[in-house]
Amino acid sequence: MPVLAPPAGGRSGIPARVNFQQGEALLEREHYQEALEEFEKGLEKDPKNVTAYINKGLAQHALGRLNDELHAYNQALAFDWTNVTAWQNKIVIRKRHRKNQPRVNGCQAAARTQFQAAVIGINRSILSTVVRQTTSPARVRCSILLGLSP
């Protein structure tokens, strides 16, 4: 199961923070649709809140919306490539749902691999530092993703 992000914080304003806190409370009580709505309201006010994107992904996961869940984690990573929780959740759902993903031909797969390698190459030094500082399960997952030895 994907991991709950740490509590929201940072530079978000009071109104957005209230939405995020209400969303987290609703998420914990398993009111996923209402939680999703609170995270979306908060993200309208504070669109760079990485924790809110991760929690939005968790709500999407509970509602069975795989594509939306992946999109939420990708948005979190767009603002913070070093966020281990977003990487960890993304890896978990990709492994679980790999069978449901459409097959691509060799050219598409090669292009995707080259693009991913370029992105990871740019961020490899940042991510490898984060990987070294994480706990064992997260470290192994990120190491596999980066092609590093765990």
What is the secondary structure topology, with strand pairs?
Elements: H1 14-28, H2 32-45, H3 50-62, H4 66-79, H5 84-96, H6 106-132, H7 136-146
Helix pairs in contact: 1-2, 1-3, 2-3, 3-4, 4-5, 5-7, 6-7
In a nutshell, what does this entry contain?
This protein is mainly alpha-helical and 150 residues long. It has helices at residues 14-28, 32-45, 50-62, 66-79, 84-96, 106-132, 136-146.
Proportion of residues in helical segments = over 70%
Radius of gyration: 16 Å
CATH arch. level architecture of the largest domain: Alpha Horseshoe
**Which oligomerization state do the chains in this entry correspond to?**
single chain
According to CATH, the fold-level topology of the largest domain is Serine Threonine Protein Phosphatase 5, Tetratricopeptide repeat
Mean pLDDT: 75
Shape: globular
Portion in strands: under 5%
Give the terminus-to-terminus CA distance.
21 Å
Class from helix and strand fractions: mainly alpha
Order of helices and strands: HHHHHHH
Explain this structure.
This protein is an all-alpha fold. The protein folds into two domains: 1-101, Tetratricopeptide repeat domain (Serine Threonine Protein Phosphatase 5, Tetratricopeptide repeat, Alpha Horseshoe); 103-150, no CATH class. It is 71% helix and 0% strand. Mean pLDDT is 75; it is low at 8-13.
Please supply descriptive tags for the structure shown above.
7 helices, 71% helix, 150 residues, Serine Threonine Protein Phosphatase 5, Tetratricopeptide repeat, mainly alpha
